[in-house]
Design brief:
The complex is a heterodimer of chains A (about 220) and B (about 240). With about 220 residues, chain A is mostly helical. Helix content of chain A is about 80%, strand content about 0%. Chain A contains 8 helices and no strands. In chain A, α1 packs across α4, α1 packs across α8 and α3 crosses α4. Chain B has about 240 residues and is an alpha/beta fold. The chains are: A mainly alpha (about 220), B alpha/beta (about 240). At the A-B interface, α5 and α6 of A face α2, β6, α3 and α5 of B. Chain B: Keywords: Amino-acid transport, ATP-binding, Cell membrane, Membrane, Nucleotide-binding, Transport. Chain B: It is a peripheral membrane protein. Chain B: Its main location: membrane. Chain B: InterPro entries: AAA+_ATPase, ABC_ATPase_HisP-typ, ABC_transporter-like_ATP-bd, ABC_transporter-like_CS, MetN_ABC_transporter-like, P-loop_NTPase.
């Protein structure tokens, strides 16, 4: 008898390692995009707040585009058209760029809300003590406004982490892409998607727990 | 000395202050009374440069508040201000609230700033509340915290903008008591207030504002006993 070639094979402990590694990639691309995107977003939020109509005509529409167009379209467009202008980015870098801009667009509005939440009377009180504009921003607006919109920011961060799954369409082997590869081989979608889901949960849950404990501490 | 000359202030087309001339001497306590919208709070904001002015001048110890080259942040250290809303920094303890500005504005060391803060909080009767967050303080205590915060910058002048208006009636007394104490210590004060008792008992002079004009200014005995202006008499008859 000729030995049969096996196209499919069952789920092995090694595959778990493969998924774990992919989960780390998801974590890495998310951490990068969320941190850079948050810094940019806070800056844009400040421009939206201070820029008045000038910002409303320039920055705001651009941010609106990135907020409104589905992420998967942004990723595919950027990955395929960036080389035309001479930007040869690999899937990972493309993913980071788009996720960062996407995060920044979402955080900008959160940040503007934070600045608004502090209010003019509080800021005047700070300035009346002799604080400069920047000292007021750093020592009064940032901590007070930051706490006010922290839950909203956590929502954005968790959302972006889950949305990073879309970078799989560019071929970057993060958690979702890794699951698809394993499903193709093992034909066990239920098991593998459950494990992948558990990994996403394991990444998100500590963040939301930590955020909740921070909020509780601040509420004192 | 604070010298105000022909001060005009507009909010858009609204003419809020219509040519104010006023001198406040060192050590003087001036109360400013008048109906809501008469421009008395705006006057304070113009004195420490929180609101720009359209005409005239405000000088504090010879420095023009609204001149281009003036270091307004430095000048404001001379002008402590207490607001109607106390605006405590909610993320900081009472001690940190008071220590923040000495530390970052005056560049005091952390230990020094905390010492100043503790001293000022004791001064206003909050010596027991150093490590308490503002949310655990009553309105009256928060307003005294705001006074301590302003005093920690060692200002030459204190501006009070209706410091007791937002307080529950039973908390007004403790704040007025603190203001009275400052007056007795010789602090120069401009108090925009609705507390006629305070204006009468504590001030050296009382100014009555009516629709953006300083109608009348004089010793409390004159304003409360023998007002020259019809508007002053009418206002006082209504608030009493």
């Amino acid at each position: 008898m000729e030995p049969t070639i096996s196209f499919f094979s069952g789920f092995t402990p090694n595959d778990l390692l493969f998924l774990g590694e992919a989960a780390l990639r998801t974590l890495w691309i998310s951490v990068l995009s969320i941190s850079i995107g948050t810094v940019l977003g806070v800056f844009f939020g400040w421009i939206l707040f201070e820029g008045k109509w000038a910002a409303a005509l320039t920055v705001a529409p651009v941010l609106d585009i990135f907020r409104s167009v589905p992420l998967i379209i942004q990723l595919v467009l950027f990955y395929n058209f960036a080389p035309i202008v001479g930007l040869n980015l690999d899937p990972f870098a493309s993913g980071v760029v788009i996720l960062t801009i996407y995060t920044a667009a979402l955080v900008a509005n959160v940040a503007r809300g934070g600045i608004e939440a502090v209010g003019t009377p509080m800021r005047r009180a700070a300035r009346s003590l002799g604080m400069s504009y920047w000292q007021d921003l750093r020592h009064v607006v940032l901590p007070i406004g930051g706490r006010a919109v922290f839950p909203a920011w956590v929502g954005v961060a968790l959302g972006v982490m889950k949305d990073s799954a879309l970078v799989s369409v560019l071929g970057y082997v993060e958690l979702l892409k890794a699951s698809q590869i394993l499903i193709t081989r093992t034909q066990e979608p239920f098991l593998i998607l459950s494990i992948a889901g558990a990994f996403y949960f394991a990444l998100s849950y500590p963040i939301s727990r930590y955020a909740a404990s921070l909020e509780k501490r601040w509420a004192q | 000395m604070i010298q105000i000359r022909d001060l005009h202030k507009y909010f858009g087309t609204l003419h809020v202050l219509k040519g104010i001339d006023l001198d406040v001497d060192k050590g003087e306590v001036l109360s400013v009374i008048g109906a809501s919208g008469s421009g008395k709070s705006t006057l304070l904001y113009c004195i420490n440069g929180l609101e720009p002015i359209q005409q005239g001048s405000v000088e504090v110890d010879g420095t023009d508040v609204h001149a281009k080259g003036t270091d307004i942040n430095k000048l404001r250290q001379q002008l402590g201000m207490v607001f109607q809303q106390w605006n405590s920094f909610p993320h900081l303890t009472a001690l940190e609230n008071v220590a923040l500005a000495p530390k970052i504005v005056k560049g005091k060391s952390k230990a020094e700033a905390r010492e100043i803060a503790a001293q000022q909080l004791k001064h206003v009767g909050l010596g027991e509340k150093l490590d308490v967050y503002p949310s655990a303080l009553s309105g009256g205590q928060q307003q005294r915290l705001a006074i301590a915060r302003a005093l920690a910058m060692e200002p030459e002048y204190m501006l009070f903008d209706e410091a007791t208006s937002a307080l529950d009636p039973e908390l007004v007394g403790e704040v007025l008591e603190t203001m009275r104490m400052l007056a007795e210590e010789g602090m120069t004060m401009i108090c925009v207030t609705h507390e006629m008792g305070f204006a009468r008992d504590v001030s050296d002079r009382v100014a009555f504002f009516h629709q953006g004009v300083m109608e009348e200014i004089g010793p409390p005995a004159q304003i409360f006993g023998d007002a020259q202006s019809e508007h002053t008499r009418k206002f006082l008859a209504n608030v009493r």
